[in-house]
Amino acid sequence: MIVIEHTDTLSPQWNCCIIAIMSESSIFEVRITTSETGSILRGPTEREVATKAETLIRRVHARGELIGFSIMGPSAAGIGRLRAYLEDVLMEVTRLSL
Predict the structure, then answer these.
(1) Taking phi first (over 0 means left), then psi (-120 to 50 degrees means alpha), and beta for anything else, what does residue 42 get?
(2) Of the residues 20, 73, 77, 98, which has the maximum number of CB atoms within 10 A of its CB?
(3) Does the pTM of the predicted model rise above 0.70?
(4) How many angstroms separate the CA atoms of 82 and 53, rounded?
(5) Which phi and psi angles does 20 have, rounded to 5°?
(6) Domain residues of the chain, as ranges?
(7) What is the reported pLDDT for 20?
(8) In the prediction, which pLDDT does 76 show?
(9) Reduced to 3 states, what is the DSSP secondary structure of residue 95?
(10) Measured distance CA(16)–CA(61) in Å, rounded
(11) Residue 39 contacts residue 76 (beta carbons within 8 Å)
């Protein structure tokens, strides 16, 4: 399953492209790409990879960079929860910076 969604509703600063891909691996993976760099974050649980991704998103936001992310994981439900959580993080950091 591959889901590609583009949204620019969060903020002009956060022009996000979100890609979710179901994989056969038991590991969750979030790839975060900015205008300057890219990072691959992996973890055995949604919580672990979400914590890593949130930390990186907050640090990148402080630098004012654009961000995109993709999520891979073993379950569509887990990918959906991660996506919703990371979108909430993006909205929060955007709102706090206004």
Answers:
(1) beta
(2) 73
(3) yes
(4) 10
(5) -120, 130
(6) 2-96
(7) 56
(8) 85
(9) helix
(10) 13
(11) no
Q: Determine the Cα–Cα distance for residues 61 and 45; give it in Å rounded to an integer.
A: 24
Q: What separation in angstroms does the CA of 43 have from each of 22, 46, 48, 95?
A: 15, 7, 6, 28
90 C-beta neighbours (distance < 10 Å), count: 23
DSSP 8-state code for residue 64: T
The predicted pLDDT at position 43 comes to 95
* Residue with token string 């790839």: 31
Q: Which residue has the tokens 């961000």?
A: 67
Instruction: State phi, psi for 51 to the nearest 5 degrees.
Output: -65, -45
Helix runs in 1-98, H state only = 46-63, 76-96
* Tokens coding 66: 């654009």
pLDDT per residue as tens, the chain (98 positions): 444 444 444 444 444 555 556 667 789 999 998 888 899 999 999 999 999 999 999 998 888 888 888 888 888 889 889 999 999 998 898 888 77
